[in-house]
Specification:
Blueprint: E1 7-11, E2 17-21, E3 27-31, H1 35-40, H2 43-46, E4 48-54, H3 58-66, E5 72-75, E6 81-87, H4 91-110, H5 125-151, E7 156-160, H6 167-174, E8 179-183, H7 191-194, H8 199-209, E9 214-217, H9 220-234, E10 237-238, E11 245-248, E12 251-257, H10 264-271, H11 274-286, E13 290-297, H12 304-317, E14 325-332, H13 339-359, E15 367-371, H14 375-384, E16 387-390, H15 400-407, E17 413-417, H16 423-426, E18 431-433, H17 438-449, H18 453-469, H19 472-492
Parallel strand pairs: 1-4, 1-7, 4-6, 7-8, 8-9, 9-12, 13-14, 13-16, 14-15, 16-17, 17-18
Antiparallel strand pairs: 2-3, 5-6, 10-11, 11-12
Helix pairs in contact: 4-5, 5-6, 8-9, 11-14, 12-13, 12-17, 14-15
Length: about 500
């Protein structure tokens, strides 16, 4: 599916590469971390892209300084050229922007993670971090976008995620005719939950997003929550009949539900790469008869501890499976400089140790916990699982639920949280679970592990066919189509 080639200014906190020094002292550009960067890399081959991102590593900052704040030429792994402009924030600004406001505050709000009885307590630190971190960081991104629009006035600015909610309004004030779009890759919560934040903050977030021509979310569920929040918090007027636009400050903004996807060809090639095959050979030596897999970050929203507890309940209920089934947990340590994330990582480790202490014996480790960033091992495990457990508390989409089945060779079954955004697409081929019901998750594991072979195959084939049809290229094409629709809405006001 091919659309018109566009000039895009992609704006995200993380970039497609991160710079570092190699063992020999030479500069290296390594693939950027995170699912968002992985998903967006496909844009590089289809459009003329300038990518604006934060300078995160020390070497990133050196590159930005050498370029005088301008963009540098880079090349994607497939040979596609692009320009990369790194924004070097002051360290204190970046810390407040990322480690206080974006994570954990906005992340916790948008995943319903605050319990509210004792947390959060807003005692001034958040306001200081907002004014001294989030606002100036967004201003720096906006300045970079404006500079690129000066260079290429007909470019489209394509903002991404919760780090950049203020930037579109800042750009719009200086470039009223610019074409702006913003895709939000995490859930959008109901209006009442936004009232955790002080009124000026929640107002600025929604006002900033409504400066775009298009606001995209992954699901109809998140889109409806966004429309309701815009109405409640800033007085916008949603079109609930069509359900796809909102009027605000003499503008109409298109609001879409477009679930992002993956590149099936990329994963087919990865599955047969030497790095993955080497990991798979090693995995085959130690794998149990039946393998339950989870691949995640050590993020509280991913619900790893409840997943371990569900596996424990499963073993309690089915002693005949001891020694036959094991859980492999490949967890990427996430945001360990944020206290809530560090505490959760310790809880994950403690829970795995407790379960292994109860059930483990020589030659069998019930939960094989590996906390490291090892993408080839993750792909190798995707190929080998019998059950893939994705039990997120809430998730904007969840790419793991699409990546794993594409390369699986064992007719593996996906156990999927009903609060993962991908559940809206994939429900007919998965075993659905309530992420808070640990007993039901244990029963779901049993259902998946004992499912008839022909039913396992039917579900996997149906899921894979859907992902191949609705792939990353199709998502990218729809983004460009939505831009045209958004522009027509604006011109009709």
């Amino acid at each position: 599916m091919e659309g018109a080639r566009r000039k895009l200014i992609v704006v995200s906190n993380r970039g497609p590469v991160a710079y570092r020094r190699g063992d020999g002292g030479e500069r290296e550009a390594r693939r950027g971390a995170g699912g968002l960067v992985t998903a967006l890399r496909g844009l590089l081959s289809h459009h003329d892209v300038t990518w604006i991102a934060s300078a995160i590593t020390e070497e990133d900052r050196a590159v930005a300084a050498e370029a005088g704040g301008e963009a540098v030429a880079e090349t994607a792994s497939d040979g596609s050229p692009y320009r990369l402009r790194l924004v070097a924030h002051e360290p204190a600004v970046y810390d407040a922007y990322y480690n206080v406001v974006a994570n954990p505050m906005l992340w916790f709000v948008q995943h319903y993670l605050w319990g509210l009885v004792r947390e959060p307590t807003l005692e001034g630190r958040l306001v200081e971090a907002w004014e001294g971190g989030y606002v100036p960081a967004n201003e720096a991104f906006a300045e970079a976008v404006l500079a690129e629009l000066d260079r290429e006035p007909d470019s489209v600015a394509f903002f991404h995620d919760y780090h950049l909610y203020l930037a579109p309004r800042l750009v719009r004030e200086q470039r009223p005719d610019a074409v702006l779009t913003h895709f939000i890759h995490i859930p959008w919560v109901q209006p009442d939950y936004w009232r955790i934040l002080p009124e000026p903050m929640r107002f600025a977030i929604h006002d900033g997003l409504l400066a775009n021509d298009v606001v995209g979310l992954h699901t109809r569920r998140w889109r409806l929550s966004f429309l309701r929040a815009c109405e409640d918090i800033v007085g916008a007027v949603p079109d609930y009949v069509a359900g796809d636009s909102v009027s605000y400050r003499d503008r109409r903004v298109l609001v879409t539900a477009r679930p992002i996807s993956v590149d099936p060809q990329e994963f087919a090639e990865l599955a047969e790469s030497e790095a993955v095959l080497a990991e798979e050979r090693e995995l085959m030596v130690s794998r149990p008869e039946l393998l339950v897999l989870r691949v995640d970050r050590t993020d509280p929203s991913k619900n790893v501890v409840r997943g371990f507890r569900a596996f424990e309940l499963y073993l309690d209920a089915h002693p005949e499976m001891e020694g036959r089934v094991g859980m492999l947990a490949l967890l990427d340590p996430s945001r360990q400089d944020v206290q809530q994330y560090a505490d959760y990582a310790r809880e994950i480790q403690a829970t795995a140790e407790r379960v292994n202490g109860r059930f483990g014996r020589e030659g069998w480790l019930p939960i094989d916990l590996r906390m490291a960033d090892n993408f080839p091992l993750s792909v190798a495990a995707y190929k080998q699982y019998d059950v893939l457990l994705v039990n997120a508390v809430f998730d904007g989409l969840n790419l793991i639920s699409k990546e794993g089945p594409l390369v699986n060779t064992r007719d593996g079954v996906l156990v999927l949280s009903e609060n993962a955004g991908s559940h809206e697409e994939l429900a007919e081929w998965v075993v659905s679970v309530n992420p808070f019901d640990v007993a039901a998750q244990a029963e779901a594991l049993h259902e998946a592990l004992t499912m008839a072979a022909d039913e396992r195959r039917r579900r996997l084939e149906g899921l894979c066919a859907h992902v191949r049809e609705h792939d990353l290229a199709a998502w990218s094409w729809l983004q460009m189509e939505d831009l045209a629709r958004g522009a027509s809405l604006r011109s009709a006001v």
